[in-house]
Amino acid sequence: AQKITQTQPGMFVQEKEAVTLDCTYDTSDQSYGLFWYKQPSSGEMIFLIYQGSYDEQNATEGRYSLNFQKARKSTNLVISASQLGDSAMYFCAMSGYNQGGKLIFGQGTELSVKP
Amino acid sequence: DTGVSQDPRHKITKRGQNVTFRCDPISEHNRLYWYRQTLGQGPEFLTYFQNEAQLEKSRLLSDRFSAERPKGSFSTLEIQRTEQGDSAMYLCASSSAGRSTDTQYFGPGTRLTVL
C-alpha cells in the first residue's frame, strides 16, 4: 500500500527566509509521481511542483524546489525567499503507475510566514 | 483556458436530505477525480472516471454515494440521505489520460455542512 508521511504539523518562517517542508513516502510501484499542493484558507488545492520517480534532476519551479532522495524515499519541498502569501497548508501527495492516477495525500503542514 | 469549476461552493442541508454537486473539468482532460477532505486531514480519494467510464471507487464511497459522468464532460456526485458525518469539503480534479502520474488540477471545492 502507498503511504505519505508529513511529520511537521506546523512550521514558522520569517519573511524572506527559506523553509523546508518534509515528506517521506512508501510505495511498491517502480514508477510513481510525487506532488506538492498548497491549500490557502479558501480551500482550493493549488499545484506547485512535480517530481517523477525516474527524474534524475531535482525539480524546480520558481521559488519552489524539491530535495528528492529516492533511496531514502523522501521529497522535501524548499520554499526560498518566503512571502506572507505563502502562509497556507502544504500537502505532499503521490500517485503510482499501477494506482490509476489517484493521489494519496499526507496530513499536511501548516506554514506561517512572519513579517 | 478555464480551470476546474465546481458548483455549488457551499451547501448546507438537513440530515436525511439528498444533495448533488457538479464538477466541470478542464476541457481537454479525460480523467476526472473526486476527493473528500475533512477538517485537519488531507484529501481522500473517492472515485475517478476516464471519459464516461467510472474506473474505480473507494471503499469510502458507501451505497448512499453515486457519481456520474454521462458524456465524458462534467460530472455529478450525489449523496442520498445525508448524515452529519458527510460534512466535508468535496474536491474535484482533472488530468489528461496520458499517464497515471499526470498532474491533477483541482477545483475550488464544495463545502458541505449537514445539520
Explain what you see:
The complex is a heterodimer of chains A (115) and B (115). Chain A has 115 residues and is an all-beta fold. Chain A is built from no helices and 12 strands. In chain A, the strands form 3 sheets. In chain A, strands 2, 5, 6, 10, 11 and 12 form a 6-stranded mixed beta sheet that branches. A 4-stranded antiparallel beta sheet of chain A has the order 3-9-8-7, with no helix packed on it. In chain A, strands 1-4 form a two-stranded antiparallel sheet. In chain A, a hairpin with a 2-residue loop joins β7 (60-61) and β8. Chain A starts with a strand and ends with a strand. Chain B is an all-beta fold and 115 residues long. In chain B, 0% of the residues lie in helices and 49% in strands. Chain B has strands at residues 5-7, 10-13, 19-24, 31-37, 44-50, 53-57, 65-68, 75-79, 88-95, 105-106, 110-114. In chain B, the strands form 2 sheets. In chain B, strands 2, 4, 5, 6, 9, 10 and 11 form a 7-stranded mixed beta sheet that branches. A 4-stranded antiparallel beta sheet of chain B has the order 1-3-8-7, with no helix packed on it. In chain B, a hairpin with a 6-residue loop joins β4 and β5 (44-50). The model of chain B has no long low-confidence stretch (mean pLDDT 93). The interface between A and B is medium-sized, with 30 and 28 residues.
